[in-house]
Amino acid sequence: MTQGPARDPGARTVLEGEGLAMTSVRSGRSGRRGRRLAAGVAAAAVVITVQTGSPGAAAPGDPWMNTALSPDQRAVLLLQAMTLEEKVELMAGDQGSGPAAFYSAPIERLGIPELSMADATDGIASRGWVLPDTANTATAMPATLALAATWDPARARDYAGVVADEARQTGHEVLLGPNSDPTRNPFWGRQAESASEDPQLNSAIVVPFVQEVQARNVIADLKHYTAYTQERYRGGEQNVVVDERTLREVHTAAYEAAIRDANLGSVMCSFNKINGVYSCENESTLNEILREQLGFQGFVLTDFGAIHSTEASIVAGTDMETGTRAFYADALLDAVNGGSVPVALVDRSVLRILRTMFAIGIFDNDYTPTAIPVEEHGAVAREVQEDAITLLKNDAAALPLDGDAIDSIAVVGADATIPSALGGSAYIQPTYEVSLLDALRERGQEIGAQVRYAQGNDPVNGANMIETLDMTAVPSSVLRPERGIGDGLTARYYPNATWSGAAGLTRTEHQVAYDVGFIGGQPAFASLYGSQVQPTPALDGLGPAGNGDQSVRYTGGLVAPSTGAYVLGATGWGDAKVYLDGGLIIDMTGEDGRRDVRSEPQQLTAGQEYDLVVEYTQNRPLVGLQPGTFLLQWSTPADAVPPSVAEAADAAAASDVAVVFVRTYESEERDMVSLKLPQNADQLIRAVAAANPRTVVVVSTGAGVIMPWAEAVPAVLQNYFGGQEEGHALAAILFGDEDPSGRLPVSYPSSEDALPAGVQNPWLDDPDVEFTEGLNVGYRGYLAAGVAPQFAFGEGLSYTQFEMDRLRVGNVIRATGGQDTVDARVRLRNVGDRDGTEVVQVYLGPLPGVASPLRKLAGFAKVELGAGDRQQVRIELDRRDFSYWDADADQWVTPTGQVAVYIGRSSVDTELAGAVRVRP
């Protein structure tokens, strides 16, 4: 079966007509309505020549169901049978009546099947489907960033096979993924959903992913097109300012690769504006770049409600509205009937949708839900995560752990009890889950070692995303409820904004961490909540919090862990007041937007309990999906150690080895305020490391967080977000069952003051996002600025040692014609005493005579070698690697001259160098 919407000579009249329509529409970029209408009339005149049929009842013998015909021919035949109303309906999402958040209803008269679209980043998110054995659960795979950390396109294929199979097994025809947005901004709340900061690595993961999804008769919808790199202002004012060369070489590179090599079926236009024009109505990015330059023949659908117009969007090339029916349902029908939108543009979009559906087999396959092979898919999740985990530091061979020499292990961290997961729309309800604590308890039983668990801190939640750099959330272990035993404060929730009348609910909350809406789990995404902290409940029939007014009063006591000056901080949106021993110390009222209000220093005495009252009302929504968020923070004297941290240090001191698990909470719709680890993680790590010099820190993040404690610990593992088999995968790496073969797909800064040019904290409240770094995204920016990251792109250690030598590089490539590839060859030797895996990375220096990155990844190879073995590694480079996009000429140009070639283990560790001469 054809795996992509290939052009077919049998449909030449229609396709030439479509080409005319696109060319003519482009000629109207001046914004003159007359030119656009003229283009539409011209297009209609051509397309009408094939509309010779009349609508009729669907039947098994309908000509478009003839599988001997090409996808193009079948699409043309079906288009002829459709009424205008049916065409418009195909272009308008109907999620209100469907089981999925993105949904196009079937047109039964013609046998057009539904398009049920799976919200998918690291698996299939629960959206109303129920299977007999697994209900609404699916395999929670590692996050896409973890997949990229494998540096292994074969693993991308394995991963995509599981996700695509489960898309079909849960009744979906379209996978809303993978993501391919370059992770240029470490503050971005959803960078873990994407692959990498580098276009080469991004493309190497995305292409086999798309190939495997569509080989299983599921349409891959690559997102988010394009230049989408932050959440703040994403649905309205966010305006990315970027030059065309940067768009082509960095931000559309994965789209080009997926179109060229995988016959990509669909693209999702993003929320943001690009150079002042919304993505879904941007002729420059959709018609000119995506269609004309990249050759895309599939269909474009909108992100959920990302469309802002009828005429401008359809002219630019958006084919399907999702999330709303504001512009492509009745509004589009009225526009066609009123003459403002030519029917030819509707036909163009419908052909694109139908052609893709036929090409990928949607009409010819059964998508009835079936059972998920739980164990088989869980095994793949584990294998991917084992290959993703990245060893960043391993002083004095602290790892792997020797089970024969360990009698006791301390596991520390509140989040060690549940596999780490993304929040928001990326959260997957797993078929089962194995945490780090679960897996180490299993291993402890096997080796006869005692496993001690100490919580140490509080579990992360969505409110932690707004923790500031200089403060941390007030920990539960210093809070006391009004009555009873335990930690936390007494919280009374009121079904109004004024704390009046009877409380609708009273319960103990561990922290003052109020968060409702998209990230906190309510109202629409309760099933997506990826934390142990429970979302705020619905009250007195108002429906989920966020649909009506709600206020909360926290009361109880605060116990100072040491004597000294404490500063309390209130941050979030809404109105709040904080009282200590009856005195008002914080007044966060009267202003919209995110606030950060601090108390004057409060002199507190160790062990004394102070009355604490916090009042909060969610009366000032940040945006519709974030109605209320509030966090109580503090900064403390240096010697203030909360009881939970002290208990963790004691557990570590009593054990042979301590494993500390720390993580961030990351989600769509919100960016992080700082790059530090939340929930007092830095202090916890330092305290445990001081108590036990054999401390291993497992960092579970998508962001390039800062690690000021890195020098204080002997071993650091980056876990990313590891999916439901995270615990088993970590145990396998910790005990050396598997060699750590992951490598960083993003750079890790040493501090927030040492970021490369162009990185802007999204919370600075500037909706204009200027990509001033140009091509120098990620590691390229660090190199250009001469700033050393704490851990570099491509970095990662093995439990064995490798050496590279005997570099040989083909010395000539032709700028045009002639030889268009060149090999880089190196000898790789495993000089250690155990089997292991290395990733050989090839970087190119600047192109001659044109502004270029100091280094850019051009190729890589992941190689497994036994102890003492050697292998010649060959990596092929082609002419495109030595080219740049000339925006004036609208073409790739290969300048002549000499280009440096570097081979090594990371963007900063390139021990071998050669050169290639590009000749005319």
UniProtKB/TrEMBL annotation:
Location of the PA14 domain: 484-649
Pfam families per record: Fn3-like (PF14310), Glyco_hydro_3 (PF00933), Glyco_hydro_3_C (PF01915), PA14 (PF07691)
Key words, A-Z: Carbohydrate metabolism, Glycosidase, Hydrolase
GO molecular function, one term: hydrolase activity, hydrolyzing O-glycosyl compounds
Single GO BP term: carbohydrate metabolic process
Chain segments annotated as transmembrane: none
Family: Belongs to the glycosyl hydrolase 3 family.
Protein name: Beta-glucosidase
Native species: Cellulomonas humilata
